[in-house]
Structures are given as C-alpha cells and as structure tokens.
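Lecture notes, unit on protein representations.

Consider one protein chain, 146 amino acids long.
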Amino acid sequence: MTVSATETFFLPDEVGREPSSISAEMYNLGRTLLARSEYSCVFVPIRSLQFLGVITENEIVFVDSQAYAYNQDEGGRLIVIAWKFKNACERASLTESIACDVVYYDSESREIQTRLIGDFRDALLLVDHRYRETALPADGAKILKL
C-alpha cells in the first residue's frame, strides 16, 4: 500500500532576485527523479540545513522546515528561495549548466543560497541512491500565496 501526503507551502512576497545557474549534474539528476515520480513534484530533504527542496517542472523551491505560517485557517511551511529555470530545453548539451533566476522570499536567505548549492547536490545524490530500485514516495505539494 502506498502512503500519500500533500504538503502545503506558502509563497511570501519576493524580496530579491538575481540571475544564476546550476550545474548540469544537479539539473539532470533532478529531472531524472521527477521523471521517475508518479506525481508532479519530488521532495528532497536537505537535512544539513533542515530544509526541503521541492522539484517541479520549471523550478525548485526550498522550504524552511522550521518556519510555519497560517493563512485563512490553513497551515504550511514557508518557501524562502526558489530556482526558476529559464530556457532549460534550449541548452546545446546535457553537460551545459542551466540558467535560472534565484528568487529570495526572505531577507536573510542570500546566505543560505551559497550552502544550498553543495548541500542540495548531496541530498539529490542520496535520494537517487535510496530510490534507484524502488518508487519515490507518493507526495504532493500545494503552494499558496501568503
């Protein structure tokens, strides 16, 4: 029997944005995990930061597991950073890095962005290794404006 859960995440107002890129290795691994999932998202726990990465079709959002909010009688975790991909399908090779906008939803999240790059890669590798031969957990995400 497959156990399913739906998580609620709140999207605060944007406080900053900057162009960036992520490595092809991270992007490709995220796409592979998403393709193996039965759902439209994949949850990647980043234990070293106590964050959760949520991979969707066009972005990866990062949720602080310690930040909880309520809005109109619904509770959920806060998104603090998002990597929004631009023209990923137009890259010339699978080894080419992927352009993205890093969107900040918390004034202190720029410091976290630097750590996310390495820690998220390690978390992706762990999830890939753990679920290589079995199905990814059946989870869904609901993102609401805060």
